[in-house]
Amino acid sequence: MPSSLRDLLSSDGFRSLPPPPPAAARQPGSQHRPGAKRDPVTAPPRNRTPLRFLSCRSDSAVAIPSQEPIPNSNAGVYKPGRELERAIFALSRSRSLAECEAAVEVIARAWIAAAAGGGAAATTAISSAAVAEGLLEVLLASRDDAIAEIAMSLLADLVSHSENNRKAVLAADPNLETFFKLLRTRKLFLKAAVLLYLLRPRSKNLAALEWIPLVLRVLQHGDSRQRLFSVQCRPRSAAFYLLEQLLCKCDAEQSRKNARQVMAMRGLEMLIWRFEDGDERQACSAGGLIVACVRADEICAEFVVDRLKKASLVEILAGNRVRSRDCALSLLVELISRSRRTKVRGFLDELKNSGSINAMHVLLVYLQKAPAEQRPLAAAILLQIDLLLGDPLQHSVYREEAIDALMEAMDCGSGRKVQESCSKAILFLCSRFSGSGEASMEAWLLIKSGFNPIGVVFYPLDDDEEAEMEDWRKRFSSIFLRRRGERFSSSLSKCLASGIPSLARSCLVMVTWTSMSISASLKSPHLAVAWSPLVPALLDRLSRDRAMEERVLAAFSLRNIIQNHDLLLSRLLPLDRRSTALLRDLAEVTWAAKEVLLAVDPTNPQ
User: Do 158 and 21 share a domain, yes or no?
Assistant: First the structure.
């Protein structure tokens, strides 16, 4: 126990309290009925009005009627009884701040004595919502740091021992004004942060006040362990929890505002430092908050890409903590998704060559050991590094392993989480995103096909970014020029024919995107073989029971496949009457359908 508390809670240090009034003199709100049995140390019921001390009150206000005070015992043995009853009554009912402060000392002494053994009655009497609310009111009104520390310590024990007490405190102070005041103090803000952490407030409790500066202060100074009676905790854990509420649990606009405030107050730098130099637990917490900032605001993404040491990401991916590794992978995905395409190559190059650890080997090991739902995204990152920074026409073990992992995830028998992750990985490989990180390749392809329905939002790129996108598309499409590309296209065609909507749509977007790279100049014998299984699946997507966007993408893909490769055109012929009728319908909304019809029957112009 800290020395200040020890001094205050010594037997000679207590201020005496007047005894409780006789039953006839008690207020009607006590609900005491004559003749009813009542525990002599049970707190009287109180009116559930929030915080009696919100308006400053004087010591003379509504004091408890006095009798002969019971003198303090100097024998060192505390016996719960009338003194504890008077203290609980004073804390629950008195409007005198001095009496309530004295009651806090008495109750704390009784609590410690009970904890030492043999004080079940005292423990039961003190462990009540009325006492918890009274302590909260003293914390708001008192200017005595020593009393505040005792009250916080006692309240921490009460809250940690009872969920009802936690709920009672949050109900009494839903906007956490008491803790806002305590976090602004010079001496007690770290202990106050620990107590607030025990309360587990939600984002709705933090909406009314400006918490970001106070929480960042706790994060900066919160490494030393704080003790509140039986509770021990590092305040930085409280800072991480509160930042999670402020950055992840608010609505999008408030999260964006909070993220920008964190960055403006150098909080993002603190989080990056914790991620790079802290232990694995800190790295996991800080990494999750960095991801939240990056998702909330694109400016944060640029800041993190420039400031973060890429070697730290690799080291965490190579570590032993599963949560930390998964967090590092999520951060990698978010940073690549939200970076300008002209910066992605440099970012991946720095990731690959920074530090003493082979980043591609680390990713490969992670890919082999990761849970099934994490593997598709790990494979997508490994594939990007390999194709962007290496020679796509040369054999690569990393590339083969990544493609195998993606094909395994495309299996229609995989679980829902794996399918969702695979869908995200496929769109991630398509590599066209909005400023908020949303995949926008489908919108771009629809506009390229001449179809632009209401609600489709397109985010144009500048010329340099479009050039980088074109280079990446050609590099990725090179996988179809090798034998493994035949298996990959077969997996894509099975996904298109499956009944899994999100995965099938993502695969359709990838097929349409890569089909734009088919050229008559590509003489690989594997090309026609690789794309042939996709033709029937694309024809099936023309059906009227499909979404119009899917039908347009299928027509655009067929146009690209047959336009520049005679062998693939021969696989389409002869076109059946049903497909011809469907393409004629689509010819009214996209020029791609007209060109398919013209290619299969040049004598019958549409």
Answer: yes
